[in-house]
Amino acid sequence: MPNDKPRIAVDAMGGDFGPHIVVPAAVKAAREGVAITLVGDEDSIRKELAANSAGGLDIDVVHTTQIVEMEDKPADALRRKRDSSIQVACRLVREGKADGVVSAGNSGATVACGMFVLGRIKGVQRPALASVMPTEKNPVVLIDVGANVDSKPSHLLQFGLMADVLSRDVLGVEKPTVGLLSIGEEEGKGNAMVKDSFDLFRSSDLNFIGNVEGRDIFTGDVDVVVCDGFVGNIALKLSEGLAGSMNKIMKRELKSSLLSKLGAMLSMRAFKRFKKVVDYAEYGGAPLLGLKGLAVVCHGKSNPKAMTNAILMAATFVTNKAHEHLAAGLDAHQSLSNGAGSGEHNSAA
């Protein structure tokens, strides 16, 4: 591309709040050196740009006439809404007019557009969603968190290979440790798919440490945790719900007595640090890995901070050539993946 800066196509109409949240977030990312293409209703976008003093920033606008609603089915969105903001944003990446796409819209439609508009990297059996989650130490990559509810051992191996690159190139981990999510740490624990996957991981070049349990995800002792999308999505939603409930419980208890209120005042800085650690907005969104272009899927209720961080994550992915490293890693393990069989039971969440 003519511009050295990564250019990210942002679905301005996506999410529960649309341009009102997305545009200010994109403006902030542009101030930090990312070239932005906002895709959606031009009048609405221009109005928000004017309100956020975006003059002089590297921001383009591409007008579209349709919006994929949260209740739309992915297949219908692909067929009947070809001029939707998410589909047009993906086409910009496919045509080389952008390096990646970020959307907080209908996640099923975003995954579908990614798979059918961008297409898969050669050799990729199933693209996967990778979520970056907080831990006691450094962030962990959990993959897959919902793109595939039925997976094969070869799929899980590829998920691990792709998440390994994300951990290296985006999170800066030199040699990520990789664990397979199971019901016990010992070899031989888990269902048939996990047991077969264990052997594949052990034969790979990954820094595989064996099985890990659900409780190990948040210790920070493993950098990448691999599972199928059904289990991963439950783990992700459980974590989000627990973090939200803990905040509410803490606030309730700290207001329960005068002594508690005094203690809360003295501990305010610690509570702010805690809130930052468990805040999903620190990491922005979940990259859909394995495509011919980068797509980052964000929570529908994402605030400006989450959207900005998602855009910055996408830009880092592009700048560090993670896409090339990912393709190379998959190619190096092609015989191992193919030998395990690809399977045909996929379902986008």
From TrEMBL:
The keyword Cytoplasm applies. The keyword Cytoplasm applies. Its EC number is 2.3.1.274. It catalyses: a fatty acyl-[ACP] + phosphate = an acyl phosphate + holo-[ACP]. InterPro entries: FA_synthesis, Phospholipid_synth_PlsX-like. GO terms for molecular function: phosphate:acyl-[acyl carrier protein] acyltransferase activity. Keywords: Acyltransferase, Cytoplasm, Lipid biosynthesis, Lipid metabolism, Phospholipid biosynthesis, Phospholipid metabolism, Transferase. Pfam families: FA_synthesis. It comes from the Bacteria. One of its GO terms (biological process) is fatty acid biosynthetic process. Gene3D superfamilies: Isopropylmalate Dehydrogenase (3.40.718.10). It is found in: Cytoplasm. Belongs to the PlsX family. HAMAP family: PlsX. Homodimer. Probably interacts with PlsY. This is Phosphate acyltransferase.
